[in-house]
Specification:
The chain contains eleven helices and 16 strands. The chain has helices at about 5-10, 70-85, 120-125, 175-185, 200-205, 245-255, 260-270, 280-305, 325-330, 355-360, 365-375; strands at about 25-30, 30-40, 45-55, 95, 100-110, 135-145, 145, 155, 160, 165-175, 195, 215-220, 225-230, 235-240, 310-315, 335-340. Strands 3-2-1-4-11 form a five-stranded mixed β-sheet, with helices on both faces. A five-stranded mixed β-sheet has the order 14-13-12-15-16, with helices on both faces. By secondary structure, it is of the alpha/beta class. Helix content is about 35%, strand content about 25%. It starts with a helix and ends with a helix. The model is unreliable at about 5-20 and about 150-155 (pLDDT under 50). Among the domains are: about 100-175, Dna Ligase, domain 1, CATH 3.30.1490; about 205-340, Nucleotidyltransferase, domain 5 (2-Layer Sandwich), CATH 3.30.420.
Length: about 375
């Protein structure tokens, strides 16, 4: 079996079982690599080590914070550097696959279809949602259960006319991405124990047992992922081609500053006005408003279709660490606004609590990946 075939088999399982020992969650983003190592002690997830490394320095002429498109060899070099700097000890790795390399959609199918026929039916029906040849992607799917009032789950989720339907969550991942990540891991001399699409890791690390629909806004460097989740199941997923990096670029252009200086100002002050740079908050808000409007449209469509209200909006990703973003989000949404605190699910030294809470949104995917195999 080829290495790519092994990866395809690994990615076909969205939910992993409990794994003993320490686990490393690796999130390779467009601007940084984040890793978290956890171990299970007396039934609890314990933080062993964590760290982040900017990828801009590995690109010729690059700077910290910028979006990159590094080769597998350079990503492997960066990964080996951060593994060394954080003194990881485990060889068990769960690697995140970026949602931007996937097509995620809900496929309605007749409830009369037998499960043994799904491997044939789903690829055929998925062609209308996937704008590239099926041989260029790896398909995974999950039948979304309906939570009945009695608490009993069923495959029957809705009716269309007289025909009962089931809903199937389908994920199509680019084989090109899987092959590149295989090369990164091989170059880094790491085994590929499991893979997971990052959106599922976010659900695991950011949510608890909410009894109402929740929107997760993942503000990445180059993209923003909008997910509506109910009872741990993705109901809606949308990708906005705008991220935290766009705010830095806008500051850089407006104030005629180098990118590195603009990034520094953004991180230090965010949406808090200062005498030295009074226009910076408005520059950032002009970028955020597009994202928030898209999120509002997504929420409105969901609430109208399902007659349910979004009870909470969770902001996560590096962009969620922006000073003042929670207060600004409250001006645009009626739901409760929460900044993700994924480290709250992990035991760590008390003296690190403040730092971990502040940096938590940036590590939500890495933490979710590690928790995947530490979960009961």
């Amino acid at each position: 079996m080829s290495l790519l075939d092994s990866i395809k088999r690994a990615v076909s399982s969205l939910v992993g079982g409990k794994t003993p020992g320490a686990i490393i969650g690796i999130d390779i983003g467009t601007s940084a690599i984040k890793i978290v190592q956890m171990s299970r002690q007396d039934g609890r997830a314990v933080l062993d080590t964590y760290g982040a490394l900017a990828l801009g320095q590995y690109e010729e002429g690059g700077v910290v914070g910028q979006v990159t498109n590094l080769s597998a060899a350079k990503l492997a070099l960066a990964l080996k550097d951060i593994l060394r700097e954080t003194n990881v000890t485990s060889q068990t790795v769960v690697l995140g696959i970026p949602s931007v390399s996937c097509i995620i959609f809900i496929l309605p199918l007749p409830a009369t279809i037998e499960e043994r026929d799904l491997p044939t039916v789903i690829p055929n029906e998925s062609k209308k949602f996937i704008p590239i040849p099926l041989e260029d992607v790896s398909l995974d799917w999950y039948i979304i259960p309906r939570r009945e009032e009695s608490g009993v789950e069923s495959r029957m989720v809705h009716e269309s006319g007289d025909e009962a339907k089931i809903s199937v969550l389908v994920v199509a991942t680019l084989n090109e991405t899987l092959a590149k990540y295989a090369d990164v891991m091989k170059e880094s001399q790491l085994a590929m124990n499991a893979l997971e699409i990052e959106v599922f890791s976010n659900i695991r690390s950011c949510m608890t047992r909410e009894l109402f629909p929740v929107m997760i806004i993942d503000l990445g460097a180059s993209k923003t992922k909008l997910s509506i989740v109910e009872h741990g199941i993705i109901e809606t997923f949308r990708l906005e081609n705008r991220g935290a990096n766009d705010s830095t670029l806008a500051i850089s252009h407006a104030l005629q500053l180098p990118f590195a200086k603009a990034e520094e100002i953004k991180k230090e002050y965010g949406l808090i006005p200062t005498p030295e740079h009074p226009q910076v908050p408005d520059i950032i808000k002009a970028q955020l408003i597009t994202i928030f409007q898209e999120a509002s449209s997504t929420i409105l469509a969901y609430e109208k279709r399902y007659n349910k209200n979004i009870g909470e909006i969770i902001l996560t990703g590096g962009g969620a660490m922006l000073h003042g973003i929670k207060e600004y989000a409250k001006e645009h949404f009626s739901a409760d606004i929460t900044i993700a605190d994924p480290f709250s699910k992990v035991e760590a030294p008390q003296f690190l609590s403040g730092v971990l809470k502040a940096t938590g949104p940036e590590f939500s995917i890495a933490i979710g990946l590690a928790l995947k195999d530490l979960s009961q």
